[in-house]
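Q: Given only this backbone (277 positions), what sequence would you predict?
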């Protein structure tokens, strides 16, 4: 399966839940795809009016995103670096996408994410990372909320809706993801625990060459966490970078520096006579 996409036809979505889905999809650029699923749900629920889009809220201070190879964050073998062996197209390397909600959540409702595959600074992305355009991408696989993962629980039960799309530019590839369950049926989440939102199966180049010699930095740029019908915080903090075939993860250094907050400096006292009144 090259793309995780499903819609349970036996489930209906509440009017406020449909508004939440539309808002999340609009941010990810997947609105056209979501429209079909919403139309299906609306047809079963009857004619209803959709409310205004939900505003993105500031995330809990302790909410975090974690992107790691081999295993979920905090588990043995988890790493933000990998040196992949090329020439074996039957093997794929696994990236785990986990998050800590930062606070207790009664019913986790939805998840959206944007992941970038960056070429080294000043370089172009090798064709190996061109997996296709839109929802019909190839070779790269996305598995939403996988179960039976040692050391981490999935973030929600079987989703009513899940989708992913991929696009490329000269210097990067972009993976956009969206998943949502039926209203009120989400699982409770606890602060301080990492939950598996998805895992990405990354293919290896068929032969050694430029694709192997040119490292890639993978960035989990952001996530929208549906913590309730009217709460959709956007999270940017955490261990969001993972390197591919880069010794010491150096390929990600410029991106890490760009994403880091500016250093704190003590405030200088105002000169005499310049105090505010």
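A: Predicted residues:
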């Amino acid at each position: 399966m090259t793309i995780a996409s499903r819609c349970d036809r036996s489930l209906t979505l509440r009017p406020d839940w449909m508004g939440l889905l539309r808002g999340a999809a609009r941010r990810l650029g997947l609105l056209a795809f979501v429209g079909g699923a919403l139309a299906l749900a609306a047809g079963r629920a009857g004619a209803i009016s959709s409310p205004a889009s939900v505003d993105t809220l500031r995330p809990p201070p302790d909410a975090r995103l974690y992107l790691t190879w081999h295993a979920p964050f905090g588990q043995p073998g988890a790493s933000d670096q990998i040196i992949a062996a090329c020439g074996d197209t039957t093997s794929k390397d696994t990236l785990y996408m986990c998050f800590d909600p930062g606070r207790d959540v009664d019913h986790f409702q939805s998840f959206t994410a944007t992941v970038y595959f960056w070429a080294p600074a000043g370089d172009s992305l090798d064709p190996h990372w061109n997996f296709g355009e839109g929802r019909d991408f190839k070779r790269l696989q996305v598995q939403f909320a996988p179960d039976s993962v040692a050391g981490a629980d999935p973030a929600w039960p079987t989703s009513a809706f899940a989708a992913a799309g991929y696009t490329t530019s000269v210097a990067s590839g972009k993976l956009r993801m969206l998943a949502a369950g039926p209203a009120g049926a989400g699982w409770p989440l606890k602060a301080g625990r990492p939950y598996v939102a998805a895992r990405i199966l990354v293919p290896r180049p068929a032969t050694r060459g430029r694709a192997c010699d040119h490292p890639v930095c993978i960035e989990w740029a952001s996530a929208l966490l549906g913590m309730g019908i009217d709460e959709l915080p956007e999270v940017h903090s955490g261990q969001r970078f993972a390197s591919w075939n880069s010794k010491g993860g150096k390929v990600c250094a410029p991106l890490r520096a760009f994403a880091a907050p500016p250093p704190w400096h003590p405030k200088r006292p105002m000169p005499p006579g310049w105090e505010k009144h």
